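INFO  loader      accepted 1 record
INFO  loader      residues=207
INFO  predictor   begin
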Amino acid sequence: MLGGQLTPSWLLEAYCRGIFPWPIVAGDEEILAWFSPNPRTVLELDGLHVSRRLKRRMRSGCWRITVDRAFPQVIAACAAPRSPDTGSWITREMEAAYTRLHELGWAHSVEIWGGSQLVGGLYGVAIGGFFAGESMFHRQRDASKAALVALVERLQQRGFALLDVQQATPHLVRMGATEIARPQFLRRLREALELPVCWADVRPVSG
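INFO  predictor   done
INFO  writer      dumping tokens
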């Protein structure tokens, strides 16, 4: 699908239908496009693969992890070209739209700090028990992986059911991402959206 808007209401409705924006950028031309891949890539919250090296590094205290402390900086870092001769699908309009979603309490970030420097992070959208991971970045080795580990731990603690990572990449597959058919994804999405959980609230412990 081409066209549409990047307003909060349009974005949230799209996510609830299993659709996400991915602009097509060619030179100075930008076309707002929307996708719902089949198959869809998810990361099961109990299926995260964390290497021994990453576990050691996270235990070492070399990084500090925060949540929602630097959303504009995280999305700007994700939008930066990975190399001088490549562009980015995160346009200025996308940055502004997701920053507005963050201000409204729907979009969130996980930050990894090395001292006072932002060295990695990720951002995405949380609706009910569903989290749509959008993008991540790193300026130190494994920092984006650490952000993903922190995200999964938070989602587990709060009772989330579905982490969408959209498309398989070698990086995500190594950490446990798997592909499922779109009908299965949409069924799980509907179920996750109904869960009475919240990004900011810890799920009560029963018993």
